[in-house]
Design brief:
203 residues; mainly alpha; 2 domains; 0% strand
């Protein structure tokens, strides 16, 4: 099981890593609010925010390739939302505004999540009185995400060991089957976890 693909670099030694988790979360929230609030015509402000991110990323000592790779994975979601604005009047301006602002916000969240261990993030959320139920759900989701991915990798290895000839069509059929099996197994596991928690006094 791989336990470091989400926050692989969250325990490095750097000036950014040594900052308190609460300070980083408040900074990220302020950065997002400022980014969303700035009119798109103030291009120099966006360049300033981008410069801040570049400096913070350099100080964090996280490999640029890793940060860019995470951004590439998340960017299609922002791009999909931005594309819908092209059908409006002056849609290209709204499109660019959403794309630039969402990219800056994503970069900030990627940087914070990879310079702060998840346990410290949960502790900071608890400090600001976030409901305990929500924190517990986040903790369980984080913990069992690794189990779910490990289960998916085992299914893929088992399928490859039994499949000697494959085509593109068969590959997609196999992938759909694996997703279905993974959904069934994750549902069954969730029910077992729920029963175990209830038997130990959880409400």
């Amino acid at each position: 099981m791989r336990h470091d693909f989400l926050d692989r670099y969250s325990r490095l030694e750097s000036p950014i890593h040594h900052l308190p988790a609460m300070l980083k979360l408040l900074t990220a929230l302020s950065f997002i609010i400022v980014t969303v609030s700035i009119p798109f015509r103030d291009h120099w402000l966006f360049l300033t925010l981008f410069g801040i991110l570049v400096v913070a990323s350099a100080l964090s000592r996280i490999p640029w390739r890793f940060l860019i790779g995470r951004l590439v994975i998340l960017e299609p979601f922002a791009l999909g939302i931005a594309l819908m604005t092209l059908f409006q009047h002056d849609g290209y301006v709204i499109f660019l505004s959403i794309l630039v602002k969402s990219t800056l916000c994503l970069c900030m969240m990627i940087l914070v999540s990879n310079t702060t261990p998840f346990s410290e993030i949960l502790a900071a959320l608890h400090t600001v009185k976030i409901p305990s139920l929500l924190i517990t759900i986040l903790a369980l989701a984080y913990r069992y995400l690794f189990v779910l991915i490990d289960e998916g990798e085992r299914l893929q290895r088992a399928r490859r060991s039994r499949t000697f000839v494959t085509t593109r069509t068969k590959h997609w059929v196999t992938l759909a089957s694996l997703v279905g099996q993974l959904f069934v197994r994750s549902t069954e596991r969730a029910e077992r976890i729920y029963d175990a928690m209830m038997s130990r006094g959880w409400k």
